[in-house]
Amino acid sequence: MTGSAVDEQPLKRRVGNGVLPRVLGRLASAVLVLFAAASATFFAQALLPGDRATLLLNQRTGQTEARSDEELAPIRAEYGFDDPILVQYADYLGGLLSGRLGVSYQMHQPVEALIAEQIPATLLLTVTALAVAWVLTLVWTIATTRRSSRIDAIGSGVETVAAGLPPYWLGVILLVVFALGLGWFPVIGGSEAARLVLPALTLGIPLAGFMGQATRAAFERALEQPFVTSARMRGMSDLGVRVRHVLRHAALPGITLSGWALGSLISGAVIVETIFARPGIGRVLVSAVNSRDLPVVGGIVIVVALVYVVVNLLVDLAYSGVDPRLATE
Amino acid sequence: MTATAAPPLSRTRRTPSPTLLLSLLVVAFFLAAAIIPGVLATHDPLQFDLVAALQSPSLSHLAGTDEAGRDLYSRIIFGTRESLSIGLGATALSLAIALVLGVAAGLGGRVVDAIVSRSLDVLFAFPMLLVALLFVAAFGPSPATLVLAVGIGTAPGYARMIRGQVLAVCTSPYVEAAHAVGHSSWRVLRQHIVPNAVRPLVAVATLSIGQSIVWASGLSFLGLGVAPPSPEWGALLDAGRAYMTHAWWLEVLPGLAIVLLALAVTTIGRHLQQRLEGHRA
């Protein structure tokens, strides 16, 4: 629902604009998003109630006790906690520009190394899930839209339920039925591909429900266009019309949603990695939140914002590819 | 506005759809569970019974038992109040923030609108769960943090919607007419803009309750919300995860409660939405 509000607005604004101003505008807002992410994470760390040096030392040693100044002094010096807050802020932003995200309180290693180590697994999961969602959406929409009122009702009913399924519950159901009950997939171990199937479905099915709702509406509108009638008059089969002509028009809202969906996929990855005990930044994030390891939480927030911004720029370009009217305008 | 006089509406009123009836029933059941859990529960939710540990669902234990022999059905019933309160609290917070931002952007002129709209664009770049996790990391897990995290995380979407609504109402013919006949701005705001911009929110609020419950339980499921001895639904899921391989009901059934309530509330919200949009058309 929020998705459709997101996708229609830029479309209207874009009509009549050239490509270059649009790309520049997008870049400016991308920079703004990253700056906001960096500032939010810095101030969340710096302005938190409680002494950071004490928090840090206690986390490293696994204790909770008050510390003397002699113990805290080297840590304050090492992390620059004694500097004025604006100096620390400038240092932090400067570090970000050269790719440094800070040092984990708990694991005492650079956050960027930690993320680089874990992010490939999460990216593999989210990209596979997105592909799964697209395949499910396309097959389901082509098969069920405007068939008969009953099939149509079943089609959109399934989409509503799928979109409403919380990933943590869907994941558990899939695990219980297909891994524990039927034994089709390994619970632990097994090949990389076999371990990917259930997590990707857990993320992909609710997303397919969302994208299906948007695609179905566009598909219905496209089916009423004159070019559909003309294709049918030329003797094209029903499936041919749906796949070759209608789909191209119906895919647009889905493409916009894919950029937006990335956020929900990353949120979902946090949950799915926990259920299926997969490695990835989702699990790192949960354990960092648990131990209040704020540099790690902040680093992941910034990286996710970066990925989101890049993907949405790509979606914008893909849009022009699918709908050439936008590029030539 | 005079709904009873319109024939098509009174017809839909006589034949409500079966899914809507079912949804109302589900919501009524969970409301009862939240208000009078003692009447609906079959066991004491805290009563240990180690002999009956990890039993699958049966007539004596409708939803089975957990590792300490506590009756899961009764625990779900007793957890309803906390899950529902967190969902309602988060929705109230979220809509309050959204209303202030949305109305300010819609009515505050170009500069305020630009600032609010840009900030909302920025907030959209962060997945809701990530915003929520940042809050939990900063303030530590607790029910109050859950309300705060979910409420703030879901607010931008609604704020944008309210802004659009206010702008649409402001440019509508009846507001122009009210200005033209010389009503004061305050009177126009109070009598025309606010009621008309807020009415669609009834449906949005309903939809949002379902979402908030799902998200709040998700955080508890991750061990970052309400802690396990509590029978809050997400906490039940968190506690059951260790026994998932041989006691499926500990994960599946509390999740079913969440999904049922969320779907029922969403169905009612959608119905309200159609009803209200039909009104305006």
Would you write up a description of this structure?
- The complex is a heterodimer of chains A (329) and B (281).
- Chain A is mainly alpha-helical.
- Chain A contains 14 helices and no strands.
- Chain A is flat and about 85 Å long.
- Chain A starts with a helix and ends with a helix.
- Chain B is an all-alpha fold and 281 residues long.
- Chain B is elongated.
- Residues 1-12 of chain B have low confidence and may be disordered.
- The interface between A and B is large, with 51 and 43 residues.
Largest interface in this structure: A-B, 51 and 43 residues
Which CATH architecture of chain B would you pick? Orthogonal Bundle
* Averaged pLDDT of chain A: 79
Q: Tell me the series of helices and strands of chain A, N- to C-terminal.
A: HHHHHHHHHHHHHH
Rg of chain A (C-alpha, Å): 24 Å
The major β-sheet of chain B equals: none
The string of secondary-structure elements of chain B, in order, is HHHHHHHHHHH
Helix content of chain A: over 70%
What's the total helix number of chain B? 11
Uncertain stretches of 5 or more adjacent residues of chain A: 1-16
The tally of structural domains of chain B comes to 1
Instruction: Say which CATH homologous superfamily of chain B is assigned.
Output: MetI-like
**What sort of overall outline of chain A do the alpha carbons produce when their principal axes are compared?**
flat
